[in-house]
Amino acid sequence: MNKKSLNTLEFYKIKDILKGYCKTKAGKDIVGNLEPYENVYEVKKHLKETKEALELITRKGNPPFEGVYDVREAVSRASKGSILLPIQLLRIAGILKSARKFKEYIDRKDDEENFEIIEDICYGLISIKPLEDRIFMCIVSENEISDNASSTLYNIRRSLKEKTSSIKDKVNSLMRTYSSYLQEIIYTIRGERYVLPVKSEHKSMVPGLVHDQSATGATLFIEPMGLVNLNNEIKELMLKEKAEIERILYELSSRVYDNVSAIKNNCDIMWELDFIFAKAKFASSLNGVCPLINEHGIIDIIEARHPLIDATKVVPTTVYLGKDFKSLIITGPNTGGKTVTLKTVGLLHAMAMSGLMIPAKENSTVGFFKEIFADIGDEQSIEQNLSTFSSHMTNIVNIIDKADEESLILFDELGAGTDPTEGAALAIAILENLKKRGSKIIATTHYSELKGYALRTKSVENASVEFDVETLKPTYRLLIGIPGKSNAFEISKRLGLPSYVIEEAKKSISSDSLKFEDLIQNLQEKSIKAANDARISEVLKSEAEEIKDKYEKKLSSLNNIKEKAMAEAKREARSIIREAKDEADKIIKSIRELEIKGYNSKTRQEIEQYRKKLKDKLEGLEETISFSQNDNGKMLKYVNEGDEVFVPSLNQKVIVISKPDSKGEVQVQAGIMKINLNIKDLRQAKHTKEDKRIKKREAKLNFKKVDISLDLRGMDAEESIYALDKYLDEAYMAKLEEVTIIHGKGTGVLRKAVNERLKNHPQVKNYRLGEYGEGGTGVTIVRIK
């Protein structure tokens, strides 16, 4: 999009405001390069990300950007193997911490909320907590390394404190000894060595090394010989401290170098998020909405507000274009708001196509245009010897050369600056040429000829800015469909011009012109009434929709209660049936016992018939209640190994690990347990939205399927630890929450090695030995972070 039009529309001011909401210079640089996107897919995507960010702020509060700095220079130095300064390391740790916190901020969900674009962006964030913790442990502030950064540094500093305490005691003793030769009874430090201020005439009385003298020469700063060795020891310790600090900084810089790709990735994502949430905060300050994007050049912006005008003073205006007409001619008095309307339409389109929300009402529509041309304002140039008319015409020539059906063109005072007759004719010709190309046009003018052109030309519509004759002030409201009325006679009369002068002036105008002006006034009055009626209708419609939504929610709640009640009733029914079946079996058992004591074979046959009839009836009733398709899913006729199915009796999903045998028995795995079930007891598994999203992500990242258990039996300690580390990494990437490590009981050596490794493993939240039914002490249950 041409930058001249963006500057004319003052898009750069919007970017300056947006920069104020960015936390980092990197985010501000992204804003600095922001321009309207070149395709409609990009526009919709970036608008959606802004909307998601605004919803996140509304629901969860401000995102965790604390400690985020622009560390591009530090990361660049680290990538070349340079040693970083403490402040640079601290800021890198800060952005790593913020990235980790941001991932937690996004993953914390309420209900079924979904932030698809921002979730996809944050999915790329990589947690490097060991490095983050190490830097924070080693560096206390921008210029201070912690004593706990290493045991060597701790010992050096402890020795340094002891030596410093000793030398202070020694220097105090020497001051008392040489007090009569000192200029002042104090000690000072020169070149990191403790010295005494000795009067120059007594320098021979204090044996030692002269390090400095006062400006007057009256005082010499002498290091007594008794302090030389202690000063040397302190100096040596300070050099060791410096060397150890450099070693620690080198170690931390090396670890940053080893993870530089992940750090760069996190930084890029965090700066992009900084930019996205800056857009959201800006939208919140504007009370902005996410507009609909139309690819057919249709514009319908409801109650648009210019974002650079004081929100307490700006007057909303509604503009529509592109359906019934392609060109809009706006007329009306000066200072009536015509130019502001042009700039509002142009600037809101530039904002929307740059992924920014616009200050308007919900359901506002902006057109997707590849070019916005704006010829607005007085651009006369003394240097180029261009008058106002020449300057405008230069812009128009450029517009005519480049405009097409994907262009929005904004003309301010088209044809002004020259003879009115010629200017009006030229303006009509320009509008007609651009209209034939399919361009969408909004133009302001004072020429009456253009009102007539709009009235008689198809796809061209008049509009005007409203003017209150009573107050002699514009209302800044746009009236589409009505050409502007000059109101010259009414204004003159209100200002005190004698009536006879006004009547004389009316005589010089044809009666047809006067009737036309009166017709315009009547149309304006009717339009105002229609607009008021429309507003009232809109309010009533909105209230009706709110009532509808309220009762739909109530109906949904009642349906949920009904479903829960039915499910509870079915559970109770199943319990009753089981009890009845058990009772029936007891009765039949008693009958058999009676038969053994004296019943004949005929009685036995009848008893068996009754028993079978009772059993079939009970089982049929149980199947009807327990395994309703609507309740627990569709019954399965066939299953294959690896299928995921649902078991209503266990109320969980399981994996089929064997094909059905001749009796229909299959083996399934539920957690670490293997169970034999009949195929009649299995139902088709229902997949939730969360299951689908996880599967989609896993497919996207091509993650392989990870078992929920790892068998280490038969391995030695070293081999088992390697397998354990690899498995825990895969389990973490596969988002498993709990896994089982099978190490067996044996001598306990393998279990001890596994538990020792789990204590400090970065992916492990906690662990415990198995309980009864889980494998006992032969397994360890591990919870993954």
Automatic annotation (TrEMBL):
<dbReference type="InterPro" id="IPR036063">
    <property type="entry name" value="Smr_dom_sf"/>
</dbReference>
<dbReference type="GO" id="GO:0005524">
    <property type="term" value="F:ATP binding"/>
</dbReference>
<comment type="similarity">
    <text>Belongs to the DNA mismatch repair MutS family. MutS2 subfamily.</text>
</comment>
<feature type="coiled-coil region">
    <location>
        <begin position="541"/>
        <end position="631"/>
    </location>
</feature>
<dbReference type="GO" id="GO:0043023">
    <property type="term" value="F:ribosomal large subunit binding"/>
</dbReference>
<comment type="function">
    <text>Endonuclease that is involved in the suppression of homologous recombination and thus may have a key role in the control of bacterial genetic diversity.</text>
</comment>
<feature type="domain" description="Smr">
    <location>
        <begin position="710"/>
        <end position="785"/>
    </location>
</feature>
<dbReference type="Pfam" id="PF00488">
    <property type="entry name" value="MutS_V"/>
</dbReference>
<dbReference type="GO" id="GO:0016887">
    <property type="term" value="F:ATP hydrolysis activity"/>
</dbReference>
<dbReference type="GO" id="GO:0045910">
    <property type="term" value="P:negative regulation of DNA recombination"/>
</dbReference>
<dbReference type="GO" id="GO:0072344">
    <property type="term" value="P:rescue of stalled ribosome"/>
</dbReference>
<dbReference type="InterPro" id="IPR000432">
    <property type="entry name" value="DNA_mismatch_repair_MutS_C"/>
</dbReference>
<dbReference type="Pfam" id="PF20297">
    <property type="entry name" value="MSSS"/>
</dbReference>
<keyword id="KW-0067">ATP-binding</keyword>
<keyword id="KW-0255">Endonuclease</keyword>
<keyword id="KW-0238">DNA-binding</keyword>
<keyword id="KW-0694">RNA-binding</keyword>
<dbReference type="GO" id="GO:0140664">
    <property type="term" value="F:ATP-dependent DNA damage sensor activity"/>
</dbReference>
<comment type="subunit">
    <text>Homodimer. Binds to stalled ribosomes, contacting rRNA.</text>
</comment>
<dbReference type="InterPro" id="IPR007696">
    <property type="entry name" value="DNA_mismatch_repair_MutS_core"/>
</dbReference>
<dbReference type="Pfam" id="PF01713">
    <property type="entry name" value="Smr"/>
</dbReference>
<keyword id="KW-0378">Hydrolase</keyword>
<dbReference type="InterPro" id="IPR036187">
    <property type="entry name" value="DNA_mismatch_repair_MutS_sf"/>
</dbReference>
<feature type="binding site">
    <location>
        <begin position="332"/>
        <end position="339"/>
    </location>
    <ligand>
        <name>ATP</name>
    </ligand>
</feature>
<keyword id="KW-0175">Coiled coil</keyword>
<dbReference type="InterPro" id="IPR005747">
    <property type="entry name" value="MutS2"/>
</dbReference>
<dbReference type="GO" id="GO:0019843">
    <property type="term" value="F:rRNA binding"/>
</dbReference>
<dbReference type="InterPro" id="IPR002625">
    <property type="entry name" value="Smr_dom"/>
</dbReference>
<protein>
    <recommendedName>
        <fullName>Endonuclease MutS2</fullName>
        <ecNumber>3.1.-.-</ecNumber>
        <ecNumber>3.6.4.-</ecNumber>
    </recommendedName>
</protein>
<dbReference type="InterPro" id="IPR046893">
    <property type="entry name" value="MSSS"/>
</dbReference>
<comment type="function">
    <text>Acts as a ribosome collision sensor, splitting the ribosome into its 2 subunits. Detects stalled/collided 70S ribosomes which it binds and splits by an ATP-hydrolysis driven conformational change. Acts upstream of the ribosome quality control system (RQC), a ribosome-associated complex that mediates the extraction of incompletely synthesized nascent chains from stalled ribosomes and their subsequent degradation. Probably generates substrates for RQC.</text>
</comment>
<dbReference type="InterPro" id="IPR027417">
    <property type="entry name" value="P-loop_NTPase"/>
</dbReference>
<keyword id="KW-0540">Nuclease</keyword>
<dbReference type="GO" id="GO:0006298">
    <property type="term" value="P:mismatch repair"/>
</dbReference>
<keyword id="KW-0547">Nucleotide-binding</keyword>
<dbReference type="InterPro" id="IPR045076">
    <property type="entry name" value="MutS"/>
</dbReference>
<dbReference type="GO" id="GO:0030983">
    <property type="term" value="F:mismatched DNA binding"/>
</dbReference>
<dbReference type="GO" id="GO:0004519">
    <property type="term" value="F:endonuclease activity"/>
</dbReference>
<keyword id="KW-0699">rRNA-binding</keyword>
